[in-house]
Design goal:
This protein is mainly alpha-helical. The chain has helices at 3-22, 26-29, 32-51, 53-58, 61-82, 89-118, 144-167, 171-184, 190-201, 205-216, 225-234, 250-266, 272-291, 297-313, 328-351, 365-377, 385-388, 392-408, 423-427, 435-438, 443-448, 454-472, 515-527, 582-591, 596-606, 631-638; strands at 128-129, 132-133, 476-477, 480-481, 483-486, 489-494, 499-501, 535-536, 540-541, 552-553, 613-614.
Length: 641
């Protein structure tokens, strides 16, 4: 009898045993005879996978093994253990703990088998495991397709090890397994979907949408992520902004950002006027948030990735030719997203002028790098009105590049490895809209070797930004370059005047025109203000003469200003060793600049567009509060698996 026939017979027996498990009741789970059947089912499934992996994956044996060998039992036992009126609740809890431990050992054993047998190079695993040398126990199989199948089954094991930790409420351990699965197979969407489930438990809506987006926009998308994403967006309450300059917390602004994408995906051909108003509002408020360093680098990156997803998922920019076969309403939707991207980019560039002592450690630089990399791979997008009408981003880009050149002029800068992926590159690895930007990076080599220290990574980011700036000198829009490199400085090319001009940050930057709308809204708002409304200042502005590295001091939700941390507590900070260091030269260079972001905000305040305002009492219902996991959060996650 051939081995192939043996596998076929085992699979038929495997299917017969599954039918006996499918229709279980709560009383059956507590029967000892049932567990004999379950162990037989696990043995048959494991042997099929080990003997003929390709056959097993074609018949989806690994999925049935998880669903009916473990998940089906776990779901029944979880339901019994949560029922306080069930007399067998304690027995169900004991059996649940036992089956979780059994499943944990099963998948660890299966993972070790493939890693040892085929010498798989996984970044988190040593060559020697429990005294066994993998090189002396390796099966010879040079087929690259088979190796990819082995990595796939390893990813499958890692994901379910994370699921088992999640069932135990060990969220940090679960996230670690999901991250390992993501690193082994970045083009598979399953691990991203499970990371989104963790964010649901943690009440992190932005992270939830971000990971669902990654699970959808990859080479092998995870199907359930699409309905999961839209269910998440449906939970965002409708928001009606009556005052575009009202004070907002970080969570409230993120909620408005997600609400924009909710109405965009609900029907991209409708709500055009509302979308346009939200774009203007978000661009203005993101500037203030970034200038006060209220947004972390991960939040800025997640917002940028979600914007890219909307463009590609809605087929608004399917190829490098962004104007191909789009209706008028689709064009408006595309322009709204592009304006949001440009507005965020402009805010991040302006925010760099507020950083007077550690520019290379600024939160916005990773997203700035990825954004310009994306633009460089879609050069035709520079002809879009959203970019052509907001040309001052190139002046800001040149200014940032010129400042960063001072850092690299330091003779003590470290040598940079070729193809080394930075942390932001690792986070978006496998994301389809950015795959052209990352194709030159060697993620496998960086996984096997030790990561660079944070200071070296920051210098490497600066070097790549400057290289990116040089690449843009060859980009032509309407036959003219965007920027030029003249006399060791990046400058903006002025096609009308036939010359190049440098960017002077003392000139007032471009701000959104809310003048007409604001006057009407402020009049209505002032007339309807009662004496018992709580008055809250928009920002806590420091006096110009006060010595501080932070131009804007962020406020916490209670209204008190956040005290600045000591310099030694900032892990991203690079202290100068002598006055002629790169950082010292940056300080001297920046002292001659007036802060552009604060200049814009002060100008708005001078014109009466930002002053003391009342908080809309109905707006609090739209805020996302980050709190500890609740029982309801866990129940919602169980429904999405």
């Amino acid at each position: 009898m051939s081995l192939k026939r043996t596998v076929d017979e085992m699979h038929r027996e495997f299917q017969e045993v599954r039918k006996r498990i499918e229709n279980l009741s709560e009383s059956d789970v507590l029967s000892s005879s049932l567990w004999i059947i379950q162990r037989k089912y696990l043995y048959l499934g494991k042997m099929i996978i080990i003997i003929d992996l390709q056959y097993a994956l074609r018949c989806m044996v690994e999925q049935e093994l998880w669903n009916y060998g473990f998940k089906h039992f776990i779901s029944i036992l979880q339901k019994m253990s949560k029922n306080e009126k069930n007399s067998q609740r304690s027995d169900a809890q004991c059996i649940l703990t036992q089956i979780l431990d059994e499943a944990y050992g099963f998948y660890l054993n299966l993972l070790d088998h493939f890693c040892l047998s085929y010498d798989l190079k996984v970044p988190f695993r040593r060559n020697k495991y429990m005294g066994i040398d993998s090189e002396n126990n390796t099966k010879t199989n040079s087929d690259e397709n088979f190796k990819s199948l082995c990595y796939f089954i390893c990813t499958h094991c890692l994901v379910h090890l994370g699921d088992l930790d999640r069932y135990r409420n060990q969220l940090n351990e679960a996230e670690l397994f999901y991250r390992h699965a993501q690193s082994v197979s970045p083009t598979s969407g399953h691990a991203y979907n499970q990371l989104a489930l963790l964010d649901v438990i943690r009440s992190n809506k932005l992270g939830t949408v971000f990971h669902y987006v990654q699970a959808i926009m990859c080479q092998h998308p995870f199907g359930p992520s699409i309905p999961n994403l839209f269910r998440t967006l449906e939970t965002i309450p409708d928001i009606n902004i009556t005052n575009p300059y009202i004070e907002l917390t970080q969570d409230e602004l993120i909620n408005i950002f997600l609400y924009f994408h909710k109405i965009l995906h609900t029907n991209c051909t409708q709500n055009a006027q509302k979308r346009s108003g939200l774009v203007k509002f978000l661009n203005l408020r993101i500037l203030a948030m970034v200038a006060t360093n209220s947004f972390s680098s991960s939040i800025l990156l997640q917002m940028f990735v979600i914007n890219l997803f909307s463009i590609d998922y809605l087929k608004l920019c399917p190829t490098n030719d962004c104007n191909s076969k789009l209706s008028g309403e689709q064009q408006k939707a595309k322009q709204d997203i592009l304006k949001l991207i440009v507005g965020q980019l402009d805010a991040m560039l302006l925010a760099n002028y507020t950083i007077t002592d550690s520019l290379i450690g600024n939160n916005a630089l990773p997203t700035i790098k990825l954004c310009f990399q994306w633009i460089s791979t879609r050069s035709s997008i520079l002809n879009e009105p959203a970019f052509s009408e907001h040309s001052k981003i190139w002046k800001g880009f040149c200014t940032v590049l010129n400042i960063l050149q001072i850092v690299l002029s330091d003779s003590e800068r470290p040598s940079f490895p070729v193809g080394y992926p930075l942390p932001e590159d690792v986070l978006v690895q496998g994301f389809s809209p950015l795959e052209d930007c990352l194709k030159e990076l060697n993620f496998t080599e960086s996984d096997n070797n030790q990561r660079l220290d944070s200071q070296t990574e920051m210098y490497l980011r600066v070097a790549r930004l400057i290289e990116l700036g040089h690449s843009f000198t060859s980009h032509l829009v309407n036959g003219a370059p965007l920027i030029k490199y003249v006399g060791g400085q990046f400058v903006v090319y002025n096609a009308a005047a036939e010359h190049v001009e440098s960017y002077n940050p003392t000139i007032e930057p471009e701000v959104l025109d809310f003048t007409n709308e604001t006057n009407q809204l402020d009049d209505r708002h002032t007339q309807g203000t009662s004496s018992d409304c709580r008055i809250i200042p928009a920002f806590n502005l420091l006096s110009i003469g006060q010595e501080s590295n932070d131009i804007l001091r962020p406020e916490c939700s209670s209204g008190r200003s956040v005290e600045k941390m000591p310099k030694n507590d900032d892990p991203m900070k690079i202290e100068p060793n002598h006055p002629d260091s790169a950082e010292g030269r940056i300080r001297r260079n920046l002292r001659s600049f007036k802060n552009a972001a604060i200049h814009s905000i002060l100008n708005l305040q001078k014109n009466g567009q930002i002053n003391e305002m009342t908080r809309d009492q109905d707006f609090n219902s739209g805020a996302t509060s980050y709190h500890s996991p609740t029982k309801q959060n866990y129940e919602n996650v169980e429904k999405r698996i």
